[in-house]
UniProtKB/TrEMBL annotation:
Residues 102-113 have a biased composition (Basic and acidic residues). The keyword Chloroplast does not apply. The keyword Nucleus applies. The lineage of its organism: Eukaryota, Metazoa, Ecdysozoa, Arthropoda, Crustacea. Keywords: Developmental protein, Differentiation, Neurogenesis, Nucleus. Residues 94-120 are annotated as: Disordered. Putative transcription factor required for axon growth and guidance in the central and peripheral nervous systems. Repels CNS axons away from the midline by promoting the expression of the midline repellent sli and its receptor robo. It comes from the Eukaryota. This is Broad-complex core protein isoforms 1/2/3/4/5. GO terms for biological process: axon midline choice point recognition; dendrite morphogenesis; gonad development; larval lymph gland hemopoiesis; larval somatic muscle development; nurse cell apoptotic process; R3/R4 cell fate commitment; R7 cell development.
Length: 120
């Protein structure tokens, strides 16, 4: 006897997930890690940080497996909160006068091929 199968497809998956991530971030829901850098605290989601950054993935997997707070090295790219960069996939503007070495180290820390360049 042949069994019939149904194909389920969610046409708006990406838009829906992006919208939910934005709501979670702006609403402060389910935040499970605190990032500390240069006197600033940023609350974030481990899963989003891990999905978007090899640097954070390794940090959270090894050094912070059980912890809820991470102290990041001075000059880490938290001049803008991760929610403005990771959740919507938006560009983040960094003042080149802050430190060229910090901007240059961003590419090596994040472990991706995304472009780091001057904005026109």
């Amino acid at each position: 006897m042949d069994s019939q199968k149904f194909c389920l497809k969610w046409d708006w998956f990406q838009d829906s997930v992006t919208s939910v991530f934005d709501q979670l971030c702006s609403g402060g829901e389910l935040l499970d890690v605190t990032l500390c850098c240069e006197g600033q605290r940023v609350w974030a989601h481990r899963m989003m940080l891990s999905a978007c950054s090899l640097y954070f993935r390794e940090l959270l997997k090894r050094k912070l497996k059980e912890s809820v707070a991470a102290r990041l090295p001075k000059g880490t790219y938290l001049h803008q909160t991760p929610s403005r960069y990771i959740f919507p996939g938006a560009e983040v503007l960094v003042d080149p006068d802050d430190s060229d070495s910090d901007r240059d180290s961003l590419g090596s820390e994040r472990g991706s091929d995304d472009e780091v360049s001057y904005c026109e």
